[in-house]
Amino acid sequence: MSDWTVEAADTIERAVATVRERTVEPVQAATRAVVFGLLAGFFAVSALALLAVAGFRLLTLGVPVWAAWSILGGIFVLGGAFLWAKRSAPQASPQE
Question: Which three-class secondary structure string do you get for the chain?
């Protein structure tokens, strides 16, 4: 006859491991993805801002400041216009 206390402890341990496997681990993976995504986004925005400043500084070496402002402003306006054209149309809401 086997020891029922060992069997009961093993059954409880399997149940707890199954619950953890189905609840905690997916949430933990999703949390990691969100945190690393936000961190990568922060680094990307910072790098783009620094590149814009460096581009302006390099432009002012060759052209007057007003021309550098115009060139960078034109680039950003064209980029914004491109993104504006690529946006999706809002979904039509049903009228009551």
Answer: CCCHHHHHHHHHHHHHHHHHHHHHHHHHHHHHHHHHHHHHHHHHHHHHHHHHHHHHHHHHHHCCHHHHHHHHHHHHHHHHHHHHHHCCCCCCCCCC
* Cβ–Cβ < 8 Å for 72, 57: no
pTM of the model: 0.59
pLDDT digits (tens, 9 = 90+) for 24-58: 889 999 999 999 999 999 999 999 999 989 989 99
2 with 10: CB under 8 angstroms? Answer: no
**Distance in angstroms (rounded) separating the CA atoms of residues 16 and 30:** 21
Distance (Å, whole) CA 10 – CA 17: 10
Residue 79 structure tokens: 């980029």
